[in-house]
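Lesson 9: reading folded outputs for more than one chain in a single document. The general rule is that every protein is listed as its sequence immediately followed by its structure tokens, and records are never interleaved. Here is the first one.
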Amino acid sequence: MRLLVVEDNALLSQLLAKGLATAGYETDLLATAAEARAALMTTSYAAVILDLGLPDGDGLSILRELRHRKDPTPVLVLTARGGLQDRVNGLRSGADDYLVKPFALEELVARLEAQLRRPGQQLGSSLHIANLEFDLRNRQASIDDQPQVLSSRETAVLELLMRSKGRVVSKKQVEDHIFGLSGDVASNAVEVYVHRLRKQLSDKGAKVRIHTIRGVGYLIAEEKRDPV
């Protein structure tokens, strides 16, 4: 599950990444409002951890823009501004939670998980297509109730496709979901992981198909059997 951390303190940012990795999360680390805006326009995240005091602007402006676009991504605000009015402003701007620095990493993870367990978010629920199930909390795929062994990147592709059931997912969306903002991606990497996932599902009897929409992207759907 990928998170976006927007924090200009490099030491704190690295500590957050390390602690969140221990808790099972992948993170993209950004330090400016401009970088955060660009990332949020192109990449889907499970949640955002957002510092308000950024070198090129106020984090609240990013939060307001996100909510103006009707983007429901959970946002946990981090800030040194601990006054009552500051907290009220953050929550009224669309923050899901508010954590004042300094804070304990355990509390941040607990608050994050509380947001992700809410209805419509990414913990405590599962996705289904035909006999294929994806447990969002454990990130475990099952076919006919039998757990399947997939690589982390195959799992990431499957999760994205199943979340987008009935909609085409662009190659760029898949690439961003797998690799985040690393930028060091082979030109055929997405095709390789989609091919591996497609073969795994077929070999194990999943009644689904991953369709390649040429020039557009990928679509997962229940397999349609020809009538006998």
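And here is the second record, again sequence then tokens.
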Amino acid sequence: MFDSYSGYRLISRLAIYLASCLLIGLIFGEVLWILLLGSIFLLIWHYRQLSRLNFWLWHDRRLTPPNGSGSWEGVFNGIYRLQGKNRKRVSQLAFLLGRFRQGAEALPDAAVVLDSEHNILWCNKLAQLLLGFVWPQDNGQRIDNLIRHPDFSAYLKKKEYQEPLELASPQSEGHILEIRIMGYGAGQLLLIARDITRVRQLEGMRKEFVANVSHELKTPLTVLQGYLEMMQSMAEPDSPNIRAMEQMQQQTTRMRSMVEQLLALSRIEDASDVSLEVKVNMKQMMDILRDEALALAQEQYEISFYCEPGLNIYGNELQLRSVCSNLISNAIRYTEPGGKVEISWRKIAIGGLFSVKDNGEGIAPQHIGRLTERFYRVDSARSRQSGGTGLGLAITKHALHNHQSELNIASQLGKGSTFSFVIPANLIEFTAHVNEQSSDANETLG
């Protein structure tokens, strides 16, 4: 039944049939009529086999083909063999699809498969719970017709899915969802939704705890510092307790500085609605920063300032000043006396660039990625000696985030570091000053 196709066998059968018709024609003396009748009979037989094949393919429910004979035996057997292969392939695909769906149902997140037009192709059960979908009734529906939120619609139209979208849950009031969209297969998208309500609550509790503790510590630290100052003023010049009181005063001052920076960090983190419509005069700010740098340098460093005239920022002046001041003070603290620090504010193609460059000892590559973490220090001992708290760059990171920017760090051991950030062009106002000489904006201070 499963003999393979043989062209030689078909030709030989046809030759034997025609030879038989020719022989019969010669016997009866009617060669042409016998050949004509044989051809007609052959056509009728082939038409009969074709009708059997057509009935089996379209009407017969049996899997096995009819018993073919002659040249049609290979056709029936070949079709049956192809059907067997297709059934096996369909079974394998069904098994893989079942495994995929089992895995998708086991995900801790809602998963939705979309086509290129954002129509729903499939979703797991958690998507039905978190997003309110009804399956399979919602199959083929546009997802923005089911999740009716202007932020979500804008997120889909923008087609920039690098950053997740946080959205209020359409099902549970007070719950927050984090939605991510990524490419999936050819012309498809995979939407992942996760309930981050608990994470946001923990972050809020942490911020509130830090803010409350920092606020509560201010009063006892102020009292301690006041009594220490009074005890120092009353102590005899040759008293052995003077050194101990000086160390206590230093540590109290350091703790107070840390508390103030924690409070500043909490305020910046909570300032998600920072107004970016107030213009900040960078020339005045750079003058203030220059005076602070001179006081900190104490004539032991070569400090150069450059401020491009007429280049101002729209944003929060206190936060921007805190960012710039932190970068400048870090450069001076972590550069040996006699070193050089270059501070510049200039216009570039994509906005305004503020940079602080020093020729200090530099930072090893493994530390650069963690510098903006709270309380992270490359050298804890030196940070304590210089009065560092490990919070300055964390404050810088959050303040820059509020101004659509981020901190860039480039450093080489033994060659120095460059800390910079770019304020985007939409927050920049530039007024060219043709008559001003560049020397008015460029100062080198010893």
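What the second record shows: The chain has a mean pLDDT of 82.
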